Amino acid sequence: ETLDNGLDKTRQGMFSKLKHAIAGKSKIDDDVLDELEEVFVTSDVGVETTLKIIDRIQQRVARDHYVGTSELNDLLCDEITKLLADNNNADMEDFTVPADKKPYVIMVVGVNGVGKTTTIGKLAYQFKKAGNRVVLGAADTFRAAADEQLEIWGQRVGVPVIHHDHYEDEEKKDPNKHPDPAAVAYKAVAKAKEENADVVIVDTAGRLHNNVNLMNQLTKMKNVMKKVLPEAPHEILLVIDGSTGQNAFEQAKQFVAATEVNALAVTKLDGTAKGGVVIGISDQFQIPVKYIGLGEGIEDLQIFRKNEFVKSLFG
Ligand code: GDP
């Protein structure tokens, strides 16, 4: 999927509403701003961020006295681009890993169903394609299916997947006992270091029992990785489903409270009109969106570039 195709539904949703908002008007006035507010809120930008955008447009209109509705798109491009958090890994454009950050460790977090496994598979593919040696860690030991799915992705991409040691007989009998995710995380990073790999991507359990539980588990995983590599994890990547709108905000809040999320991947932007969530989440949490998912295929993941994204929506 290209960016423009992938954002079709969101663009159409916003565009038709925007067109309606400015129909028959030559300048941006309070009515237009009210309608604009409605457009953004219903496109899942979120109320806080919407008010921020409207406020900025209002200031520009006040400063320049007369702003025609034909300039609205330019204004929106400008202000929304400024609002979006900058990618904090500009040196990793196009999936190249700087020599001093190898092996680059990505810990991937998020609730079940958001597209975590798929995103890990797509990332492995892109990193490998860029010439990196990749290792995957199947540390979501709570779901047998997650383990198997990651193995399938590993085979597809042609990269090794580190699994937990087989269940002890005791554990097999007790459905509440699971292999330790931290042990898998440790093994994956150790293996990557041993074999001079460039990138390690570690899955985590997506079960949200409660916040304390989540926090403890993620902290433990981080700590064992640090035993192998003090700077690990370089990236704690939260995967959220862009088609769930406000739900995505709630999930982000929980994970941000539980661990130091420093990058976001927003999936399923194809086939949804709720793509405005990218703008709201990035603004509210001041965490850069690093990757976006635009389809189910192995190539349907892109590095998020805010200028291109905003241009695709409003350009
Ligand atoms: P997990 O439970 O978070 O590991 O989720 P999965 O990776 O298994 O994905 C759940 C479903 O979402 C699968 O059917 C994926 O094919 C689908 N999916 C993941 N990412 C995307 C995306 O960017 N676009 C679309 N359309 N589907 C996606």
TrEMBL record:
Signal peptide: none annotated. Involved in targeting and insertion of nascent membrane proteins into the cytoplasmic membrane. Acts as a receptor for the complex formed by the signal recognition particle (SRP) and the ribosome-nascent chain (RNC). Its EC number is 3.6.5.4. It is a peripheral membrane protein. Pfam families: SRP54, SRP54_N. It is found in: Cell membrane; Cytoplasm. It catalyses: GTP + H2O = GDP + phosphate + H(+). PROSITE patterns: SRP54. GTP binds at residues 110-117, 203-207, 267-270. One of its GO terms (cellular component) is plasma membrane. Its main location: membrane. The gene is ftsY. SMART domains: AAA, SRP54, SRP54_N. Belongs to the GTP-binding SRP family. FtsY subfamily. This is Signal recognition particle receptor FtsY. Gene3D superfamilies: P-loop containing nucleotide triphosphate hydrolases (3.40.50.300), Signal recognition particle SRP54, nucleotide-binding domain (1.20.120.140).
